[in-house]
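BUG-359 | component: ligand-complex export | severity: low

The export step for 6-O-phosphono-beta-D-fructofuranose jobs runs without errors, but we want the raw record kept on the ticket for reference. Input record follows.
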Amino acid sequence: MIRIGMLTSGGDCQALNATMRGVAKTLYNLDPETQIFGFEEGYRGLMYGDYRLMKPSDFSGILTVGGTILGSSRQPFKQMRVPGENGFDKVEGMKATYRNLKLDCLVILGGNGTQKTANLLSEEGLNVVSLPKTIDNDIYGTDMTFGFQSAVDIATQAIDCIHTTAASHGRVFIVELMGHKVGWLTLHAGIAGGADIILLPEIPYDLGSVIQAIKRRDKAGKRFSILAVAEGAISREDAALSKKEYQKKLAASRYPSVSYELGDQIRIALNKDVRIVVPGHTQRGGSPDPYDRVISTRLGSAAARMILNGEFGCMAALRGGQVVAVPLSEVASRLKTVDPMSDIISQARDLGISFGDEL
Ligand code: F6P
């Protein structure tokens, strides 16, 4: 009989439940005596011993359900060694819960920060198997994270809807998509939605170049332009600032995000009607799409096998279509960013998409 602790941490996404179902069904199937303890709201539940013993039926009927049946919360990695209220030691709290419940392994679903803490717990001697969740697809060591494809579907639909109204009114539209540090979601949705200009955090943009790209479309007789802009897109001038200077600029800015500033700049330069659309958290909501249901089920099932094989301190990852175990030490503290020189970018450029950096 094995005893597992399970938690979902950080921002949610569509296939968390599907992944937990994959882990649980596989474990119950291979070892019907398995006991799974679900921690409430991520690491918070593990720290404070807030958990419930799950039943196999808890994992039924959740394949298509978004969100997480365990709840989630953000517990920043940077704060893990900082004492909580009344000097509470969070790491020792998590270790104590693990020991008190006599767990054999923790199954941790989460994004980058979550993986760092999973690695910390592994270094502290706990058995950990993790799974790569995020709509941002920025976890190092895996080709794909679950949640990403479902978010691409939603973001693409948003751009599709904008296409018809942009065409009717001959307007410039900026669709701002999630991704503060990386632009995978904006890049994929931008290409899938036929955006004319795609701005990513990895490729600082030049306002003049963006204006030229819109003018080129005007000259070609196109009545509208659509920009897919990542929330972390940054101009060349801002990218040249120090982190501190940039934070200061943001704090003083009257714009809620980069898109509104850029929208004003385009409006002034071209005397055009510009509209901003921010799908926001809709990108994390709703059901996982079929692709995510498949990879989350596979990753979950493989994670269960890793537990049974004693392969701890690893994240179940997708590489070249196979599920592999990647050491958490390799995953933690690294980010998978879009390579500006990659072929997906050059193919997009070749067909005329602007990344706002052309001369
Ligand atoms: O990590 C996923 C993500 O969706 C980012 O793309 C986004 O910037 C962030 O979470 C927003 O999350 P929240 O509003 O939950 O803090």
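Assignee comment: Attached the raw record above. The chain has a mean pLDDT of 97.
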